[in-house]
Amino acid sequence: MCPSFAWILDGHVKNGGDVIAGTLPVEELGVSAPDDKTFVIELEYPQSYFLSLIGSCGQFTPVRQDKVEEYGKDYAATADKMVTCGPFTMVSSANRLYVFEKNPNYWNADAIHFDRIEMNIIDNGDTQLAMYEQGELDYVQIPTAQVPNYDDRDQEFMNGSLDWVYINCDADYVSNQNLRLALNYAIDRTTYNMLANSGTFQGWGNPVMPAVDGVNGTYGEEFQPEGYPLTEDLTKAQEYLQAAMTELGVSDPSEITIEFSTTDAETNEKIAEVLQEMWQNNLGITVNIKQVTYNELYSNLFPVSEFQVGYSGWSPDYADPYTYLELFISGNVYNYSQYSNSEFDDLMAQSRETTDATERLQILAQAEQILIDTGAVVPLQVRTGHYLIDDDVTGVNFYFSGYNIDLVYGDCASTE
């Protein structure tokens, strides 16, 4: 498993955390192969979402040890240096064109309709669109700027990614809970989405995406607490601001200066400017934008919490609220906010101990409520994917965790 992703074993696979920390040998990891066709995984606690986790994360895909050792760093670099057991096998990967053919040995081969799939790697979104319109492609993702031009033709789905603003809970000013709440209530998330993303995403005021699994429906339908409003609540924002000023010992909001860190991508500059204007106009505070390279932000600033507030987000590793909430557990490797709340941590621990699905999600909803009540993060929007698919292509599914597009049981009328 990739070292940067090994953390996901902690709390999921038995002894995963201790093996990662080096306090137990890898032989103590809760995995075994009692025979040639059986693989056993022991879990730290009951996990209803575990199949979603291993199905969504490529890091859990089994590989043949003998082939990995034979090819070394070249393993899977080309079609002839990989061994797979899925519905399709890669037959070539030259000139940025990946070609897959139906695997006759797949366990459910009779249900697979596509005989061949060609995947073109094309960097320019407008070029992709032009090729689709000319009939050279059957499927294409619409670039964000072009989405309004295809409102009557595109297919839309939540891709699971939540955009938010991390708040360093140990930093000057924003360590104050009331100020963090003021920042949350001073944002018009609907207007933000229109200005920053041409209205192509969905404004959202919760730290958990609503479409993750519930018991009989979605978590959003059955359990999710009410989050921050999609339109600003300036009355509440001012109330929290005044309380923060009293606690911080400042007499004028202009004395409060916040540095907003983001990457140097042009789209992120626009995002930062929209939020800067909302916070400065609605609260009267000063917001300075700091743009750095992607590597600087995610390798140097976020990991050591050298920021006040910073634009980021999270894409789910599996279809469960826990994938978002665990980021705020004290000591989590991705807890860039340095958020620490003992009641929240206790609830997260309780959710791992119960085997009752309803009780578990009720506990996670309570934990989410604490994040909202304490202003742990500034949720902004749920990202959505917009696609064009040829009318002859059917049976293609989209998912918000793991691999967004599923072609396994697709079909094409023109091939019949």
TrEMBL record:
<dbReference type="InterPro" id="IPR000914">
    <property type="entry name" value="SBP_5_dom"/>
</dbReference>
<protein>
    <submittedName>
        <fullName>Peptide ABC transporter substrate-binding protein</fullName>
    </submittedName>
</protein>
<dbReference type="InterPro" id="IPR039424">
    <property type="entry name" value="SBP_5"/>
</dbReference>
<dbReference type="GO" id="GO:0030313">
    <property type="term" value="C:cell envelope"/>
</dbReference>
<keyword id="KW-0813">Transport</keyword>
<dbReference type="GO" id="GO:1904680">
    <property type="term" value="F:peptide transmembrane transporter activity"/>
</dbReference>
<keyword id="KW-0732">Signal</keyword>
<feature type="domain" description="Solute-binding protein family 5">
    <location>
        <begin position="25"/>
        <end position="332"/>
    </location>
</feature>
<dbReference type="Pfam" id="PF00496">
    <property type="entry name" value="SBP_bac_5"/>
</dbReference>
<dbReference type="GO" id="GO:0015833">
    <property type="term" value="P:peptide transport"/>
</dbReference>
<comment type="similarity">
    <text>Belongs to the bacterial solute-binding protein 5 family.</text>
</comment>
